Design the sequence.
């Protein structure tokens, strides 16, 4: 969607910027494992939710893509998702080339730099596969629900499309990164089944909570964008 002069609007650029920023941040924060203590115990996870650091940033990509899909249509959202997928490889190339380049004497420790920013092959494989499947599913299901229920139930398509997409993303990422890739290619460590289950449940519970909490903000962003730029309701297949 552009203005009368063919210039992209501020909300459009802002949502693309948020999507790409969150995606790049997720790539750079994936190596840290987070643990949130709960005041109660849950099945599988116990009293701690354990999840990759990327989960927080990655959840924002679904918020941005749902806002974008609602405002600009299915085709526009698919373009953003798949171009961003290609940009993942640019990020990896830039990071890996910086790691491989010689370091100056006053540089930070090259080994520490590589440990922090150099995601292992199993993490990269899991995250890329999870991304391309779950994000395209999110856009598709968002508009399938919209086609069937009409334009008024934004809360329903936001929660259902994001909730199912996050489940797909979590299952693919954890399974590939911590079981399949290590077993088949010898990269990374195969984690015990109970640890894998705890990662899946912990990561998904946090993502699902974010999907529910962000729904009022999706309404707010969509309303502000339509008010500012006079946008009409985007076509379901446009």
Sequence:
């Amino acid at each position: 969607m552009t203005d009368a002069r063919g210039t992209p609007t501020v909300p459009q650029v802002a949502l693309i910027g948020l999507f790409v920023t969150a995606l790049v941040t997720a790539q750079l924060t994936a190596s840290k494992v987070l643990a949130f203590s709960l005041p109660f115990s849950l099945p599988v996870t116990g009293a701690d939710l354990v999840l990759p650091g990327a989960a927080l940033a990655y959840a924002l990509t679904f918020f941005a893509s749902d806002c974008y899909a609602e405002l600009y249509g299915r085709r526009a959202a698919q373009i953003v998702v798949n171009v961003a997928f290609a940009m993942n490889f640019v990020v990896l190339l830039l990071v890996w080339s910086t790691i491989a380049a010689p370091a100056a004497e006053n540089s930070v420790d090259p080994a520490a730099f590589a440990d922090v920013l150099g995601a292992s092959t199993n993490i990269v494989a899991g995250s890329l596969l999870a991304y391309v499947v779950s994000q395209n599913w999110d856009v598709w299901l968002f508009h399938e629900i919209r086609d069937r229920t009409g334009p008024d139930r934004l809360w329903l398509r936001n929660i259902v499309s994001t909730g199912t997409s996050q489940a797909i993303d979590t299952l693919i990422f954890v399974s590939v990164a911590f079981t399949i890739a290590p077993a088949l290619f010898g990269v990374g460590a195969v984690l015990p089944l109970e640890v894998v289950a705890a990662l899946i449940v912990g990561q998904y519970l946090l993502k699902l909570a974010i999907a529910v909490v962000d729904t009022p903000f999706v309404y707010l962003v969509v309303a502000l964008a339509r008010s500012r730029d006079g946008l009409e309701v985007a076509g379901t297949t446009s």
Observations:
- The longest helix spans residues 154-185.
- The two ends are 11 Å apart (CA to CA).
